[in-house]
Specification:
4 copies of one chain form a homotetramer. Chain A is α/β, with parallel strands linked by helices. Chain A folds into 2 domains: 8-140, NAD(P)-binding Rossmann-like Domain (Rossmann fold, 3-Layer(aba) Sandwich), CATH 3.40.50; 143-390, Dihydrodipicolinate Reductase, domain 2 (2-Layer Sandwich), CATH 3.30.360.10. Chain A is built from 10 helices and 17 strands. Chain A has helices at residues 18-33, 50-60, 69-74, 90-99, 114-129, 144-154, 186-189, 193-209, 342-357, 365-383; strands at residues 8-14, 39-46, 64-66, 80-83, 103-107, 134-137, 161-169, 213-221, 226-228, 244-246, 252-259, 264-270, 279-286, 289-294, 300-305, 315-319, 389-390. Chain A has a 9-stranded mixed sheet. In chain A, helix 6 (144-154) packs across helix 8 (193-209) and helix 8 (193-209) packs across helix 10 (365-383). The longest helix of chain A is centred in the last third of the chain and has 19 residues, at 365-383. The first copy, chain A, is globular and about 60 Å long. Chains A and B meet through helix 1 and helix 2 of A and helix 1 and helix 2 of B. Strand 16 (315-319) of chain B pairs antiparallel with strand 16 (315-319) of chain D. Chains A, B, C, D: Keywords: Oxidoreductase. Chains A, B, C, D: Residues 9-127 form the Gfo/Idh/MocA-like oxidoreductase N-terminal domain. Chains A, B, C, D: This is Dehydrogenase. Chains A, B, C, D: Pfam families: GFO_IDH_MocA, GFO_IDH_MocA_C3.
């Protein structure tokens, strides 16, 4: 038996590590729970290592493989290219895919530099003229509690926004003995905590408030500047100091900001917050209400309604699992929570829906570029004695 | 490309409502994240309505359909029958499937009566002699935090168990205007909150403690005895009282119990706890440590280690998303939480693993029968002025 | 300088251990924060040991001492007798004090038996005829969050009550090596966890709901039947088994109950819940709303308003520190929480206010007797195979 | 009866508003629970309005009154002057009191400017030569959970500190219709949220970490620049715009900082965080452990021990009410929480103990000056385009 008859959306995915697995699951699963206007097909998976990509394709459910990502762009049986590789490869791949007339879903951060991101946004704008669409993958927007937060702000339940505070806390390199990785090398990762996780809280706070940051003041810090090379790196040790690699990105980024509507923002992204594994914490205070969210309790949104009488006012713990909540009606009965991967599935839903309607999916490459400009301003401010730096 | 070459496990699923969808997702998804010794195949889906079952099969990913469940048992291309229908049908289906030499996975509660459950357990025991296995679906055992709780008790971290308190709180019929449903009719559902959700906390507390209940003292209550018939029920109203149906099951069940090791238990199952959607709350206090769990925060287990100095002792909020935690290594990095449906996936993993090893999967039908006996003792006690009733 | 000119209320306090210190603090402090109609005077403190009572009186602020409690009743300069001694002494003292024309504040539980409590309630009723008042000290009623809970129920915010669940969890004798104490001897303490802490949750749930229990079904348990005699006990060990004392009270009590309005109740009182120090946890579910309270977070009340739209409904965390909240206006600005001792201060405020108005303070001895009858029914049920026992 | 025979410490208190009431309660109550080496006597209360100060003295327990604060300094029966007036009066009063040979306890912030604070610190240093002591009242240091946090850091349980995040969130002027007050006028209050509440989190984070801030980068914001004059202000309105007053202080302050040990700090102080009443939230992440505290749950400290195995690691919710915890042994049994006012009582305990021992109480005026320098650097940075500004 097959899914309801719908036109196909044939997908080519580049990359099959953590993000590739998450995207594959989303492409496979979205049409099982949502009635999509196009039916995704897992057409081809690209990866450099023939054995690796073949094994991954089998495990993840892809019909075919390529070992050169450019071949994916050449194929007539691919409608959309999904880019799940490290940031330094995004610009080339995305621009080429758009030029080849393929829709593009590109993982965040959009690129490793503003220049690259600008080129990508321009390519996306050009492509849009012929109905080819590009989207950047800030999936946390699709956690139902976050989407609900956006709706409450848009509905005016918070009034004028005064404060935004956002933290993205991890601890996976808090131990100085944790080994080197490409994520700690500037030429591959672009930046450290800033681009990897700071990008998410920049996007999320802008998404929830419907405002953008106008400037920032920042500090960057690298707590551990040298780390052991991983045993599997295959490098031969030389004389003296061999076996250690240099960390060339930030371990942590903290910054202040102002939003277009006048709110103050405080931001912190770090991989050294021992005991916090993936804590995305966002709070917004407005003149009429307040919100609080923590990804460690991802099915919950806290909402304070300033219109309540003092006697019974309090932050409400909204368990965001009701059929009335965003995306939730397609899933389980109330109280049966969702997990990390559902954001990716909802991303597929929104993307496919926009493509079928001939509309621009969000966040667009222009949105991704704007986040990139915030990250660049953070780096400039940090290099300029924390001076407030306009975006 | 295909999954790693493994022998197939060809599945026939009966029922395609809430549980059918959850099981289908699990069969589809388990081999994508876990390296299973057998590869599940979604061979056939059975349902009474031809159009309905065909649509469901397409959406849920089944290759074929049947409109008579007995036909599933006749098929040579089915190795395992998965029963996701209401409780009053379980006994007949499961016994027939085992007799036909099919492995069986049967949703909980095992049956609507002890007599049925006994017959099922006997059938399972007979079938085991020829290597045919039966398992009952208490999936919450496979929530990683619950599995970890079991491990901590088994490792002696709690010492001698003194207290068990368990609540399963929902609120979907708290409103007297909520309509009738088969779940409120004794001949179909067997019992109300007791069998539907009370069964889960009986199983979970016995699983975590490694002990069984020896007796109970109980109260049952039906708060709302008549409810409007649903508009879709198609029943014609007669003279007087038409349009209302009689609730013939319990709305809530509360009971005390004693465990084999001497612990006291308090239990509550209700669908009238306004504001609690699917709150499975379990606490265990022992001589050496304590545990607390709430399904509303399902990725967390709270553990108190009585050996800590008083100055720094406290309940630890363990975020059960580390690679070292049960089942978690197959999923996402630390801090990226799982959802309701993962319990079903883990159930498939354990079931398939046991089948491949020729071992008895747990919980067995004998385990399900034992839970049924507890539920029966609850009903007898409630009918006998709450007298303590042995199991 | 002196407090505002008010008639004096001259107090004689019997007992100067834990409760004596808490009451002394309340008598001293209440007029400093509340504008009382009578000014308490700490006239005399009674205790058996001359040196001990003299030291306590100095430290706690009492003007004079007596070593025989009967002497307090004889004094013309005493208007009210405050009884803070163990339960087996309450009846004699309170009845004599009332007969002597003194108002009485008596610590809970009112007595160690229903018979004693009945005699006390009768004495109180007689005394009331001549304007002499008696009150029992269930101070937790005066925690602002609890008082607010009562108000919300009285205002109809919960609708019809369906569920009450209450736990009083401590762990101070979870260790079998914890020594004997008078609190573990039936002839002094009357009962164990049941009367000591179970009495509080019986009173609190009845206070909050405005209903009384009509019957109970119970289990009692003594986990550790022998304990080492304390080094300071001065008892000479005999031959065999010397050095150990027998625990003659319950270590834990669990019971089910029905309330006058039809609600189901589940109760648990224990001193073996490792990691819980003084956790009084109360939840109430009604047809229109729900409440949750935990004394470990005593300045907070959680309230679910069933009238909220599903999208924004959730338990509100009310921080009960607003000027609009009960008792709070006399204290600090919003957000500056109160502690355990404030319940005692509020008790003084309510008692003094009632006395000045010539009204009956609550809870009365009749209320205390009713709690005693619940405790007795619990014991009868436990002795009668947990049979449901009317009160 | 009297307190144990001890030398007296005769106190003169200046000011009898919120802080005066809190200090009076502390002076009255400390010797009732702690065995102090000196017995505080509430000798004299000073206030400008004769009727007001007389009423306050009676209510708060002071023996005598003065209407000119200088008269308190002249009195031979005063050993210590306790200053509870607005910040712009601190320098003059404290310097004069020290010159008169009186010990001084001065509320925070130490002064409204660095120049004043420097003069005060110099005066304190001079006075110390003759055994006269000065202390500034950062009372939150004496919340037991905070003191415990300091101990854990000092004991090395956190390792090297990497992150400090601190927020002091209130909402009492979030409403633009909230009236003017002296706290919103720069010449009286010195600054707004920065000095009033920001000072506390600067002191607390430095106290807990045992480090000081070396520089800051800051933003200040005034969200509501004009507010209605209070009805009681007695000011005559002029022509045009009468009835509104100008807010000349910050409504909110956010800043980044670096600590001496290399940690990054993020700070936020605001009175516009709707729904947060007095939320002092502090988190510290180190290489070996982490801490989290929120004054909304003031009896709790969360501690993550990085040395725990991953399987059972988690933030421990330490209920800081054990006899082993700082200050707690003098109060109630475990689990019986303390309130806001206890910090002031513990402050008296520590101050009196230091005075009796002839030692410098902490925090000293030098400590208060250092905090003032941080606040000044925040203001300079905000005025200098957020440039990182050394302290």
């Amino acid at each position: 038996m097959t899914l309801p008859a719908r036109p196909a959306l044939r997908v080519g995915l580049i990359g099959h590590a953590f993000m590739g697995a998450a995207h594959s699951h989303a492409w496979r699963t979205a049409p099982r729970f949502f009635d999509l206007p196009l039916t995704p097909e897992l057409t081809v998976l690209a990866g450099r290592d023939p054995a690796g990509v073949a094994a991954a394709a089998g495990r993840l459910g892809w019909a075919d493989t390529e070992t050169d990502w450019r071949r994916v762009l050449d194929r007539d049986d691919v409608d959309l290219v999904d880019i799940c590789t490290p940031g330094h490869t995004h610009a080339e791949m995305a621009i080429a895919a758009l030029a080849a007339g393929k829709h593009v879903l590109c993982e965040k951060p959009l690129a490793n530099s503003v220049a690259e991101a600008e080129a990508m946004a321009e390519a996306a704008e050009r492509a849009a003229g012929s109905g080819v669409r590009a989207m950047v993958g800030f999936t946390y927007r699709r956690v139902p509690a976050i989407t609900l937060a956006r709706q409450l702000v848009a509905d005016g339940r918070l009034g004028q926004i005064r404060h935004v505070r956002a933290q993205y806390l991890q601890d996976w390199i808090a131990d100085p003995a944790a080994p080197m990785s490409w994520r700690l090398e500037k030429d591959k990762a672009g930046s450290g905590a800033l681009g990897d996780i700071g990008a998410h809280i920049v996007d999320l706070t802008q998404f929830i408030t419907g405002q953008t940051l106008t400037g920032v003041s920042a500090l960057l810090e690298t707590f551990v500047s040298k780390r052991p090379l991983p045993a599997s790196s295959g490098k031969l040790g030389g004389v003296g100091g061999e076996g250690m690699g240099e960390v060339t990105v930030d371990d942590a980024a903290v910054f202040l900001g102002r939003f277009t509507g006048g709110a103050l923002g405080t931001f912190e992204a770090t991989r050294f917050a021992l005991g916090r594994k993936n804590a995305i914490r966002i709070e917004v205070n407005g003149s009429a209400g307040s919100l609080a969210f923590d990804f460690e309790d991802m099915n919950v949104l806290h909402f304070f309604d300033g219109g309540e009488p003092a006697t019974t006012a309090g932050f409400r713990r909204i368990v965001v699992t009701e059929p009335e909540h965003p995306y939730v009606g397609a899933w389980w009965p109330a109280g049966h929570g969702l997990g990390y991967e559902h954001g990716f599935i909802h991303q597929v839903v929104d993307l496919v829906t926009a493509l079928a309607a001939g509309e621009q999916p969000t966040p667009s490459f222009a949105d991704g570029l704007q986040v990139q400009r915030v990250l660049a301003a953070v780096e400039r401010s940090a290099a300029d004695n924390s001076a407030f730096t306009e975006i």
